[in-house]
Design a protein that fits this description.
mainly beta, 1 helix, eight-stranded antiparallel β-sheet, seven-stranded antiparallel β-sheet
Length: about 230
């Protein structure tokens, strides 16, 4: 496959996402801006806090000789035509400054959708795309040669994205991917277009500047939180 990987650095980490963008753990009780796990009278509590992480690399690769998005360095483009992949996205979450005690199984990435990112000359046939985040088989390189996109393996870890905030953002709960990264290597992830029908034709774009990553950090707290 011939392609081109556009990679850029996210401009900022931004604030922690809440509400629909961030699911609290099961059996959790909301306490102010924190989440108290297993609260009990006269005993210590564990507070789950959302910690922002940096998405330090992101981009896309075109599967065709002619990139339909002309090397756009501002967005991750995921698209397909007639059931065949046209472009595939990538991202890498930096875990170098992961707080001690953080639980990788709660890692979540959200990306803002770009309004109006059609495939030139194509008639879109799918109103709701299916995009799957999959573990990269090898570490995401700083750059890549045309025709040599990093391979991915969904069997090692994957998560289907869900539109949130009325479709303004997409959320990927990277539980299985994070487990693979923790046990092996932080390779990064591919955003893979999935064909719902043989004729599926659609295009989705996500702003690189607006990518957000959060992870749960469990800390002890005294009884009687405000």
């Amino acid at each position: 496959m011939r392609g081109r990987l556009g990679i850029t650095r996210a401009a900022a980490v931004g604030v922690v996402l809440v509400g629909a963008a961030f699911a609290t753990p099961a059996a959790a009780v909301q306490v102010g801006n924190a989440v108290a796990l297993h609260p009990g009278v006269g005993s210590a509590q564990h507070v789950a806090k959302a910690v922002p992480l940096r998405v330090d690399r992101a981009g896309y690769v075109a599967a065709t000789p002619l990139d339909p998005y002309r090397g756009d360095a501002q967005a991750i483009h995921v698209s397909m035509a007639a059931g065949q992949e046209l472009t595939r996205g990538y991202f890498h979450v930096s875990l170098h400054h992961l707080p001690a005690g953080a639980k990788l199984s709660t890692l979540r990435v959200t990306v803002p959708a770009v309004v109006g990112s059609p495939i030139a000359g194509a008639s879109l046939t799918v109103a709701q795309p299916i995009i799957e985040a999959c573990v990269l088989s090898k570490p995401l390189p700083a750059s890549t040669a045309a025709g040599s996109p990093p391979a991915y393996d969904c069997a090692k870890g994957s998560a289907v994205g869900k539109p949130i905030e009325g479709g303004a953002r997409w959320s990927f709960a990277l539980k299985s991917l994070a487990r693979y990264w923790a046990r092996h290597d932080n390779t990064g992830a591919a955003l893979v277009p999935i064909a719902s029908t043989p004729a599926a034709t659609w295009s989705a774009g996500f702003s690189i500047k607006g990518i957000r990553a959060t992870v749960i950090r469990s800390v002890s707290a005294p009884t009687g939180l405000p």
